[in-house]
Amino acid sequence: MILPFTIVQLVLACVVGLLCVALGLAGRKPNDLTVLSVALVGLLVIAQVVTAIVAPFVGNEPTGSLLEFWMYLGTAAIIPPLAIVWALIERNRWSNVVLGAAAFAIAVMTWRMEQIWSVQLA
Amino acid sequence: MSAQPRTRASGIGRVLVAVYAVLAMAALGRSIFQIIDRFDEAPIAYSLSAAAAVVYVLATIALATGWDRLAWVTVSFELVGVLVIGTISVVAPELLALQGASPFGPKATVWSVYGAGYLFIPLVLPVLGILWLRKRSRASVEA
């Protein structure tokens, strides 16, 4: 993984999470802003998939378990699409909170992926 | 007055289902990895981890489909689990072969140190689940 990219992804996911949860609690239904911002978070996860495939070939090797890393990344890749489908089917304010929760989940998982890739605890 | 709180309650229930689904995936994923990667290091802890994951999946399904009886059983099981295993992991970690294991380390389970490695969500979620189930059963009695 590339640390600056991870940080950008983390910050974006947190901002999007806060935005969606705030709008949801304020009573707004999902709109272009919330759905597309979560789509952007999802797009960056796909970019992370590409990065993770290419990185080992250019000397950026993971220090932790590659299996564990890919389990996180695979799960992270399906969360934003599921949340967006949910928001499109169920158009009420709680779907915005669900979109926000999905973005926060991506933030936490991205952090764990960076740890698995570059920091070993034990 | 009667229609509004109902839709709102079912809406909050949806958020609960979504958060449960994420936790179920996290628990299941970690548990599968632990069992594939190093089951013999802490078999009891990893078996508990797997059992917890399966219960989270069942709870998610029960809450999503409105199967309240199963929801009660699974959500209560989680609350007992996080309290009992959380306490053991703090007081007597050697019982689970978890000596010196950090809640964020490779031997962590969802319930270690009351779910600290998962932002304490495993501790908070069953409580919210029980409150939500109580609220809903009361609403259906009134209706």
Can you give a write-up of this model?
The complex is a heterodimer of chains A (122) and B (143). Chain A has 122 residues and is mainly α. Chain A has one domain. In chain A, 79% of the residues lie in helices and 0% in strands. Chain A has 4 helices and no strands. Chain A starts with a helix and ends with a helix. The mean pLDDT of chain A is 92. Chain B is mainly alpha-helical. Chain B has one domain. The longest helix of chain B is centred in the first third of the chain and has 36 residues. Chain B is elongated and about 50 Å long. The N terminus of chain B is likely disordered.
- The N- to C-terminal Cα distance of chain A equals 20 Å
Mean pLDDT of chain B: 82
Number of helices of chain B: 4
- What is the CA-based Rg of chain B, rounded? 16 Å
How many DSSP-defined strands of chain A? Answer: 0
Note the beta-strand portion of chain B.
Answer: under 5%
Major sheet attributes of chain A: none
Number of helices of chain A: 4
- Helix amount of chain A, in percent? over 70%
Structural class of chain B: mainly alpha
Low-confidence stretches of chain A: none
Q: Roughly what is the average pLDDT of chain A, rounded to an integer?
A: 92
Radius of gyration over C-alpha positions of chain A, nearest whole angstrom: 15 Å
Count of discrete domains of chain A = 1
**Shape annotation of chain B:** elongated
User: Quick one: biggest sheet of chain B?
Assistant: none
Category from helices, strands and their pairing of chain A: mainly alpha
Task: Tell me the β content of chain A.
Answer: under 5%
> Which percent bin holds the helix content of chain B?
over 70%
> How would you spell out the order of helices and strands of chain A?
HHHH
Q: Spans of chain B with pLDDT under 50 lasting ≥5 residues? A: 1-9
